[in-house]
Design goal:
The protein is of the alpha/beta class and 464 residues long. The protein is 35% helix and 16% strand. α10 links the parallel β1 and β2. It binds flavin-adenine dinucleotide (FAD) and iron/sulfur cluster (SF4).
Length: 464
């Protein structure tokens, strides 16, 4: 039987920011690893966007060699403690695992996390590289989310001097400012970013490329190629009356204030975030679940998810929906906000919602929500958090002449080479695909690093 990872009790965890899922014990990890059939044609590997040799690392775990199991994972994945926690394994490796056909797949994600945590606890020797060994040239990486971190790590391992430029004061992208502490402790992000530094990656924070320095200037100062991994961090809004009232946040602002500025440690950190008794979060993706669960932990009495479709269409990971339910988040499904109302001082008081029914499937294949006439209802609220998606971070795009964008405003790349319309400038992650996943961004960073290596090698060969 598949091992269940122990978790903090819901009644306790909704009052703290400590990690919810506690990780396998050594006994559980061994029992779970032994379930793997070590298939000759491991379909799980095909489901992994960075192609970790899953059966091999599991075999090493069974053999009692967690250090070697971790080294095997690290051949492909420089951020295993992060991926083991936040990857949607149920749609990737575990979806393909043969054991899932008749029963439950191997808990590959939990085993990956186990190996990474074992390495951290036992101070396993991480790959390292002195800066002097970077002989192949200098590459600039813009944005330090999973796409940029992976591109920089892989370039360093290939012998390049990679410099990460990050506009915020701490590296990590969404891993740092989006995903909350109770799902991904920042100590884990610090540790994995620290390992990158051991590879010789230089990290320059507080540099907004496009304003502080342009891409042209990066080339002029000796960088031979540039990778852009600036993500999709620009929040979308609902575009309904009342959205400018006090008490309305984008999920992006709310989570950034809590995560990056440590609002949850007020008054130790002097950055409070105002949260009322009744909070409504609009949307039903991972971002919405994170915002709702964060609001609970900040002391809200009721937190509702307001979503215009039904449970079957909710885009968040199943595990996170269940975690939110266990913690007491209320789900108001088939409900769409149409207007926000406030008092004479401009403070939010009420969300007016309309009930919806499901009609025919739309372009996304999901059944379209259709308003039910005359079904408006009032929901008293002090805080509304809007989590209905994000668009591309625009600053660098606007400041860079000749950078081709697609119709949705994301960077266009050659899918084979990841090169943009500007020679020597590559891109990957959410800034190319739109909001996606950590591992998809990492896969893009890897692909781009290989393409940059080929591009620079060819250039040198041609003597340019
Ligand atoms: C709240 C939340 C929860 C999520 N949960 C999950 C999950 O559980 N599992 C999962 O797989 N995915 C999850 N995702 C999605 C995932 O985090 C993203 O798909 C992924 O982080 C994209 O990586 P990226 O490297 O492309 O960009 P980002 O992580 O967005 O990083 C981009 C970085 O570039 C920086 N930047 C932007 N412009 C500039 C500039 N001009 N100069 C310098 N730096 C710049 C930004 O500050 C940022 O640090 C979640 C997203 C959010 C918002
Ligand atoms: S498909 Fe499942 S059982 Fe087969 S090697 Fe992969 S994890 Fe093991």
């Amino acid at each position: 039987m598949r091992q269940q990872m122990p978790k903090q009790d819901p009644a306790v965890r909704r009052t703290n920011f400590d990690e919810v899922a506690l990780g396998f014990t050594a006994e559980q990890a061994l029992a779970e690893a032994k379930r793997c059939l070590n298939c000759k044609k491991p379909l799980c590997v095909q489901g992994c966007p960075v192609e970790i040799d899953i059966p091999q690392f599991i075999t090493l775990l069974v053999a009692g060699k967690p250090d070697q199991a971790l080294a095997k994972i690290k051949e492909k994945n420089s951020l295993p403690a992060i991926c083991g926690r936040v990857c949607p394994q149920e749609n990737q490796c575990e979806k393909q695992c043969v054991l899932g056909r008749k029963g439950e797949p191997v808990a590959i994600g939990a085993l990956e996390r186990y190996c990474a945590d074992w390495g951290r606890a036992n101070q396993a020797v991480e790959p390292s590289c002195e800066p002097e060994c970077a002989v192949k040239g200098k590459v600039a990486v813009v944005g330090s989310g999973p796409a940029g971190l992976t591109a920089a790590a892989d370039l360093a391992l290939m012998g390049y001097r990679a410099t990460l430029f990050e506009s915020l004061h701490a590296p990590g992208g969404v891993l740092r400012y989006g995903i909350p502490e109770f799902r991904l402790p920042k100590a884990i992000v610090d540790y994995e970013v620290g390992n990158l530094k051991k590879l010789g990656v230089e990290i320059k924070t507080n540099v907004l490329v496009g304003k502080t320095i342009t891409i042209e200037e990066l080339f002029a100062t000796g960088y031979e190629a540039v990778f852009i991994g600036t993500g999709a961090g620009l929040p979308y809004f609902l575009d309904i009356p009342g959205e400018n009232l006090n008490g309305v946040y984008s999920a992006n602002e709310f989570l950034t204030r809590v995560n990056l500025m440590k609002a949850y440690l007020f008054p130790e950190y002097d950055t409070p975030v105002r949260i009322g008794k009744r909070v409504a979060v609009v949307g039903a993706g991972n971002v919405a679940m994170d915002a709702a669960r964060t609001a609970l932990r900040l002391g809200a009495e009721t937190v509702s998810i307001v979503y215009r479709r039904s449970r079957a269409e909710m885009p968040a990971r199943r595990e996170e929906i269940e975690n939110a339910e266990e913690e007491g988040v209320v789900f108001r499904l088939l409900t769409n906000p149409v207007r926000l109302e406030g008092d004479e001082r401009g403070n939010l008081t009420t969300m007016i919602c309309q009930k919806m029914a499901l009609g025919e499937p739309d372009a996304s294949g999901r059944r379209r929500p259709v308003p039910i006439p005359g079904s408006e209802e009032e929901l008293p609220v002090d805080t509304v958090i809007v989590a209905v998606g994000q668009g591309p971070n625009p600053i660098l795009l606007q400041a860079t002449t000749g950078l081709a964008l697609n119709k949705r405003g994301y960077i266009e790349v050659d899918p084979e080479t990841m090169m943009t319309s500007i020679p020597g400038v590559f891109a990957g992650g959410d800034i190319v695909t739109g909001a996606a996943t950590v591992i998809a961004a990492m896969g893009a960073g890897k692909k781009a690093a290989r393409a940059i290596d080929r591009y620079l090698a060819a250039k040198k060969e041609a003597g340019k």
